[in-house]
Structures are given as structure tokens and as C-alpha cells.
Known about the structure:
The complex is a heterodimer of chains A (103) and B (164).
Chain A: E1 5-12, E2 15-22, E3 44-51, E4 54-61, E5 70-76, E6 83-90, E7 95-101
Antiparallel strand pairs in A: 1-2, 2-5, 3-4, 3-6, 6-7
Chain B: H1 8-15, H2 28-38, H3 47-51, H4 55-63, E1 68-69, E2 73-76, E3 80-81, E4 87-93, E5 98-105, E6 112-117, E7 125-130, E8 136-144, E9 147-157
Parallel strand pairs in B: 1-9, 3-9
Antiparallel strand pairs in B: 2-4, 4-7, 5-6, 5-8, 8-9
Amino acid sequence: MASSIRVRAILNGDITEVQTLIQHPMDTGLVKDAKGEIIPAHYIQQITFTHKDKTVFLADWGTAVSKDPYVKFGFKGAAKGDELKVSWVDNKGATDSLTATIQ
Amino acid sequence: MTASSGPLANRRVFLKGAGLVALIGLGNAVLHAASVYAATNDNKYPDDAFKQKNAGDAIKALYGRDHEASDKIKLDAPEIAENGGVVPIAVTTTLPNVTSISFIVAENPNALAASYKIPEGTVPAVANRLKMAKTSSVIALVESGGKLYSATKEVKVTVGGCGG
Lengths: 103, 164
């Protein structure tokens, strides 16, 4: 299966700009389906970005983050060709991860 | 749900002000208490903060302190969001020693939307997309040098992001 994660990490000066898009329903648990039954909450709770064993960015998310979440940040200290690992875990315990190369 | 679904009643008791010590007997709730107290120190998911209904309680659960408005925070959000399901919101700040950035949508069913840890070496700026149930003020919180600062902006929502 293709990864749920798409990452673009580009070194710009001394800052690596990281844009991430994840495929996930981010169901709030407040919405009903066509039959009037509540769709249970299903959302990513945490994403971790790791560069050389150091967490460079950590996101804690609630249900108010949009479906197929997007997040952008930047960090210093990386070089072109370095690896950046992205991993998420949702409220049902599902996880996915991806290692991207900084360009 | 996973282990995070503790008995709600117990948690309420905790929130009404019992100290950590009083909690030891509450089994499941202790886990939640621990996650709240540790929220600013390590990487535990701040479950309790995300379960709070209103902005004040969420901020208290997450940071445990008051915030003051700062003009060194730039909160970028649309004046009018046509689709409350996807509202692009970004924050940048010139405050020094930023350790975390959080987003609150005051009128959402649960006010806290997202919280980001900013380790040393990471730029204090975040862009993301949030759901808004209706017109609401959006608060960006920036933790800087052990203090909590904020910027607030009203975003009008024409179609809510809660579906249903």
C-alpha cells in the first residue's frame, strides 16, 4: 500500500522547510452518516519528525484538524541528503511512518 | 478507542481541583493526570486538554497558566472562511526561546485544535488547516521563555466544518 504520508523537505539557506500531507479521515465523532448513526472518532493524535535521532517537531492533534491534514514547519541543522523520519499514531493505535530525504 | 478512554466522571472529579495526591486511588484517571502534568515536559499526548470544551479550561489543562496578548505573534487566518472544514491558519512569532505553539478555536465543541512542540533549532512558525464549527475567535498561543503569549483573530465561517 502506498504510504499515507507525503513529505517535502527542502533546505533553504540554513533552514529545512518541511511540508507534510497525510491521508487520514480525521473523524470527529460528532458527525452522523446517512443512516443517522454516529461515525466514531478516528483521528491522528501525534506526529513526530525526527532528524538524526532528535525530535525536531512534534504535533499533538485533536479532532479539529482538517481531514487529510497538512502541516508546515522549518528547522535548522540539517544538510542536503539527510534523512527526516515522519511517523504518526492515531486514536485507534494505527501508525504509519516514512523517511524522506532532505533536498 | 484505546486506553485513553477513562471514566469521564473520574476525570471531572479531578478537574474540580483535587491535587495529584488525592488521585492515586482513582486508577485510570491517574494516567490522565500524569499526562496533563507532563504535557509541557515530555512528549505525552495531552488527552485532557483536548477533551476540554471551552478555551479557558483547555489552556489551563495544557499550560496551567494565564496568557497575555503579544504583538510579536503574527496569526494568519482568513477573515471569512467559506468552508469551515478546511481553514488555513498559520502563526509566526519573533518571540525568543519558543517551546510550543498551540491553536484554539474557541467555539468548537472542543476548543483545543492542535499543539506543537518547538524544540531548540526549530523555527517558531507553524502552518496547518483546521476545522471550524462556526464563526469563532481563533487563538494562537506561544510559549516563550516559560511564559504564555497569545494572538487572537475572529474568523467568520459561512459553512461549518462539523458536517451533520
